[in-house]
Structures are given as structure tokens and as C-alpha cells.
Amino acid sequence: MHKPIATTRSATGIPTGRLAVWWVLASEIVIFGGLLASYVMHRIGHPEWAVAASHTNTWIGATNTFVLLTSSFTAVLAHQAAEHGDGKTAAKYLLMTIGGAATFITIKSFEWAHEIREGFTITANGFWSFYYTAAGLHALHVIAGAVVMAFIARDAMKGRELHRVELVGIYWHFVDVIWIFLFPLLYIAK
Amino acid sequence: MAHASATEAHAHEHATQEHHGPQGILKYLWSTDHKVIAMQYLFTGMFMAMVGGFMAYVFRMQLAFPGKSVPLFGYVSPGEYNALITGHGSIMIFWVAMPVLIAAFGNYLIPLMIGADDMVFPRINRLSYQIFLLSVLVILSSLFVKGGGFGGAWTSYPPLSANADYNLTPLGSSMWLVAVALEFVAFLLGGINFITTLMNARAPGMKAYDIPMVPWMIVIASILFMLSVGPLFAGAIMLFFDQNLGTGFFDPTRGGDPVLWQHLFWFFGHPEVYVVLLPAVGIVIDIVATFARKKLFGYKTLLYTAVATGVLSFFVWAHHQFIAGIDPRMANIFTVTTLLISVPIAEMCFVIIATLYGGDIRLKVPMLWALAFVGEFLIGGVTGIFLGASGADAYLHETYFVLAHFHYTFFPIAIIGTFAGFTYWFPKMFGRMMNETLGKIHFWGTIIPFNFIFIPLFVLGLDGQQRRIYNFQNFPELQHLQPVRILATISLVVMLFFQLFFFWNVIRSWRKGPKAEKNPWKSNTLEWTTESPPPHGNWPVDEMPKVYRGPYEYNHPDREEDYWPQNLPA
User: Fold this and answer.
1) How confident is the model over A111-142, as pLDDT tens digits?
2) Cβ of residue A14 closer than 8 Å to a chain B Cβ
3) Per the CB < 8 Å rule, is B237 touching A137?
4) Interface test with B, best of A1, A38, A141 (most B CBs within 10 A)
5) Partner-chain contact A9 B202, CB within 8 Å
6) How far is A32 from chain B (nearest CA, A)?
């Protein structure tokens, strides 16, 4: 498909792709914002949820935080390489970021499997409902980001569409930031 | 930019009719052309309007003649009645007002009015329609599944909506939710496209205050939608889990809070009113300026007013919950914000009236619709004051007064606004002029019965008639109002009948109406500088328009002609 003239214009001076990613993030922020605001209101209204929350494993949560932050760092390195026109290095760092995402999801799977075996299912009580819904929605974003990154890494390997490395990086930092909110709200607040 | 800056923008004689991409029927199913996608949205929306209109006909017949077999439908059971009113409300807002006013007009007009050849992300645009089409299929098939369509009203309040033991539609209620969520995704994708296109793809020379009102309003509406729908999207996931996994977010028997859903729903639901209002206002403004042959009074005022409306609309939602047990002190605050929001809306009406004042008014069919919009919407706005005041609302809540009020807002927005825009841009869209006589018959045949439907409903509401009742014969104190109900129903049937004139006019004009020239209304904006209908790419690549002035320079003292197209060099 040939590119329309419209796509090549930039009346604001900001590249269109970057502009669009920021608007995507704006719409995502209100989705998570609504969910977390609902959770916080409920949590304030239900002091007894602290008992349920005490069963979450802060160390696993902290490990996952570390994994995700590290993957954000490699995403930045990928961006830096792409800025220098080095598609191969960018792809390499993107693959490392995908590795971080995979580690995060793997840890989460073991964590959830353990919790479900203990009887803390999504219907156990309100806290666990929010716990699985919020973290699950976030995990879906991690998976989606990893899949998109795989496509971008494939193109970057051939030196094509290098500007997309930055775009997926912005999205990836956002996924990180959401987790930075989830971790204290779901794990640390006991 | 090289393409654009090399263009010379004046009327050209030969349009290049080159088409890219798939040919034949695939061209229409798989096109990325913004005009084709606009048509897809337009015709899907019009089809859904017929579905929603038919639903209204069936349940109004049941109310006027309870227990009698309704022609073309049969006997209406209580469950079916609930599914019909739910379907009518949901379809008219999510599958008629949104796709037609935002998606169809937005897709068609934004690139044309800002002098671009397409949206900035044509494939995301196509994906947006495909997801929307999927949502249409889901909502329509939900009416025919086991247990029937969802009957818990378009607001879908839990615990009724959360528990199949209460609503008796285990599949219907989940499918309703999935369809609405898909529709949200479609409009988020479309909205991102609209916003970035307006921000980045404007013709060279087009500054912020040179943008016509239609693109501005649709983009402000898209931003409003994007910022308000998120919490409801999260709420939809939670409600879906309540329905299917047995969580208890909203079900009090499982420790949940049903009022939380009301907050999430109305935090979106009230801005949503302005999401559909603003595009309609934009359409009306453009038409009024063109047919009054006068410069728009207060361009910036109108723009800031629209933004102010958008900001305020995030702080009024709890006026839907005055009797849901919210703190009365909170109700006071929301009364104040709700009454405040009528200020910018009134300002918009004044801008339109001031534009008309001293103008050289031409009462063509689009102008009639535009003027009717102002008059009818005013009634909707003024009756809203009663409901916004928590004291009066305690009495009027859940009565037909509410129903009549929001139909006096939504009907002007979704129906009158659409007809205004459709008749105005029909020559551009299809290259033919519509018939004025048929258009006027259709106009009066719609506007007069419309008032005879809903003014009686105000009366019913003030007399205490509750909404969402299957058969009022079971309420002895409301029985004497039956003639009023029959009047409303007959008026609806008359109004639906007169829509045949519209379809007749469209088909007749499309086939053999007089050919439309480039600029039949002598308007200033850029879409009128290309062929009718515009070719793929809108303008030849080397003739992309440049902009030299604002969109509303009518009857400028320095010019002989009474209009001054945006693309004419000074």
C-alpha cells in the first residue's frame, strides 16, 4: 500500500506515529485509572481485605518489578541503537526486552498457579477479584507488547521502519509504569 | 511535505479517477479510502437506525394497545418488551449516533475539510470499521439467542445485569456487553486516527483557527470519548467477570457495590451526550454560516465553549444518581456543575442565532434541518434544568419526563443533525442534487410528528408515569392517560411513514438527480473545491489545496462574490 500524503505531513512538528502512541496511552491510562480507582475506593471501604492481601508474595512481586524495569532499560538501548541507524543491535535489544516480558509472564504463571492451589481464586473475595483482573489486564498488555516488538524486531533486523523501535519503547515504558502502580497497591499495601 | 508544498490549489477541470488497491466488490469491503469507510459507517448506521426505529414502533404499539398483536411483529411478551427497549436505547446511541455522526461524517469530512488525501492511518481506519461491523453482528445476533436479548436497559445496571438468575438472559446480557466493548475499541481506533489526522495532516497554510467547525467538533468529541470511556471499559470487564466467572464486583450478595457501576457508567455516559452533540453542532454551524451567507459570529468563542463543555462534562455524571443513595451534599455539588454546563450550551445557541441575525438566509432543506436542530434542542436543554436540580429530580427521576427530555436532546442530535449533514453533503458524496420538494415534505413530516410524540410524554412524566413498564393497564391511577399514550404512538407511526419520502428521495436523486457541480452551495470550505464525488486521493497529487484564510468569510466587503473559498490566494 502506498503511503497517503496525509501520513507524511506533520503540522505539529511531532511525527504522526509518536503522536498516535501518546493518544493510545492516554486512552489506556483512563482504562487502568478507572479500574484502580474502583479498587482503591473498595479497599478503603473494606479494611478486612488486608487479610487477603497479606497472602500475596511481595518478593515475587518485587522480582517481577525488577525484571520489568530491566526490560525497559533494554528497550531504551534498542531505541538508542535505532537512532544511530543500527537495526541489528536494535533488534538484539528488542529480543532481550521480549525475553524480559517472557520471564515476567513465566514468574506470574507460577505465582498464580500457587495462589490458585491455595484456594485464592478470582471468586475467593473482592480483593482477589481485583488482584486477578488488574494484574491479568496488565499481563495482557505485556504479551501484546512482546508480540508487537517481535514484528518490529524482524523489520529492524533488515533496517526497515526503525522509527517504530521508539514507538514500541514508549508503549513498553507505559506498561512498566502501570506495574509500578499495581505492585504497591496489590502487594505492598497489607 | 514535498508533495503538498508543490501543489497549486484552485479549481481543476479534470479529476484523476485512478484507484489503488483491490478492485470490484472487494474495493468496497477492503478499501482503506476514508470516503469508502465513511460510506460503510453511514449505511451500517442507517440500517441500525431502521432496526432501532422498528423496535420503538413495536414497544410503542404495545404501550398504546397493550396485549394486542403488533403488525409485522406479533404479540409482545414482557421479556421481549424489555429486550426491545434495551435494544432501542443501545442501538440508537452506540450503533446509530456514534457511527453516523462521528465515524461517517468524521471519516468523510475530516480529510476533505483539512485538505488531505486520506486519514493518516488508513489501515487502522479500516480495522476500526471491521471491529465495528463485528460489534453490529454480535448485538444483532444477541437478540436471537436462547433466553432472548438483554433486557436490563442500555445503562445495564447491576445486580440485574450481573446475575442471570435475575435477568434470565444468560447469553444475551454477555453478548450485549461484548458488543458494546467491541464498539468502544472501534471508536478508540477511529478517534486516534481523527485526532492525529487533524493535528498533523492539515493542508499547508491551515492554522488552528482556519479549521472548519466540523473537524474541530468531531476531534474534540473523540478526545472526550477517549478520556471518558476507559473506566467503563474496565467496568465492562468487571461486569463480564461477574456474569461469567462468578466474581462479585457489582453484586451486593457477593460483597460488591452496584453503585460503583453507576459511577463508571455515567462517568462515560454523560460526556457521551456531548460526544454526539458536538459533531452535530459542528454540522449545524457550517450549514448556518453557508445558508445565512454570513461570517460565523464568534469562531473562537464557539471553539472555547466546546472545550469548556467537554471539561465540565466530566464533573456532572452523578446527576444520574440523585436517588441512588449518594450523599446529599454531593448531590448539591453535582447540581451546581450540571446547571453550569447549560451556560456553554446556551452560548452555542446564541452564536448560531447571532450568525443568523442580519444574514441573507436561504431556507434550503439542510438549513431547515439546522434551524430545527436549534429549536428542538433548546427544549431538550431547558427541560434538562429541571432534572439537573436535585430537588426537582427526586420527583421526576425515572419518569417519562426524563425520557422525553433526553429524546429532545438525542433526536435533534442523532436524527436532525444527521439529516442536516446528509442533505448538505449529499451532492458531494454522490455527485447529485437532492429533490427540494421531497426534502421539505420529509422535513415537516418528521419535525411535526416528533413533537407530537414527545410533548405528550412530558405530560405523562409530570403525571407520575414511570419508565420501563410493560403494561400501564395494571396501574389504575395511570389508566386515564391512555389517550395520551395512543397519541404518542400514532405520531411515531406517522413519523416513521414520512421516512419513506427520505429513502425515495435518496434513491431517486442518486439515480437521476441533476448532476452536482463542485460547489453547489457556494461554500468556502475545502471539500467543495474538488469533484463531486471526490476521486481517490481527493485532489490530484500536484493540486493539493493550500489555505489562505478562515472557513467562514461570507459577504466580505472587499469582494464582489458573497463567498471566499479558503484556498483562493489573496
Assistant:
1) 999 999 999 999 999 999 999 999 999 999 99
2) yes
3) yes
4) A38
5) yes
6) 7
**Among A26, A27, A20, A22, which Cα is nearest to A6's?**
A20
Q: CATH top-level class for B25-543?
A: mainly alpha
How far is residue A87's CA from residue A67's CA, in Å, rounded to a whole number?
24
B171-B173-B176-B180 Cα dihedral, nearest 10 degrees:
-130
Inter-chain touch A125–B192, beta carbons under 8 Å: no
Closest-CA distance, A13 to chain B, in angstroms, reads: 8
Cα separation, B392 vs B486, in Å, equals 27
Q: Where are the domains of chain B?
A: 25-543
Q: Which long-range contacts (CB under 8 A, 24 or more apart) does B343-349 make?
A: B344/B305, B344/B306, B344/B308, B344/B309, B344/B312, B345/B309, B345/B381, B346/B381, B347/B301, B347/B302, B347/B305, B348/B281, B348/B302, B348/B305, B348/B306, B348/B309, B349/B374, B349/B377, B349/B378, B349/B381
Q: Which member of A8, A20, A125 has the closest CB to residue B121?
A: A20
Q: Choose among B462, B421, B375: nearest CA to B108.
A: B421
Residue type, position B304, single letter: Y
- Mutation target for A interface from B36, B196, B330: give the one with most A CBs within 10 A: B196
Q: Go through the domains of chain A in sequence order and give each one's CATH number.
A: 15-188 (1.20.120.80)
Contacting residues of B for A7, CB less than 8 Å apart: 118, 120-122, 201
pLDDT in tens, A45-86: 999 999 999 999 999 999 999 999 999 999 999 999 999 999
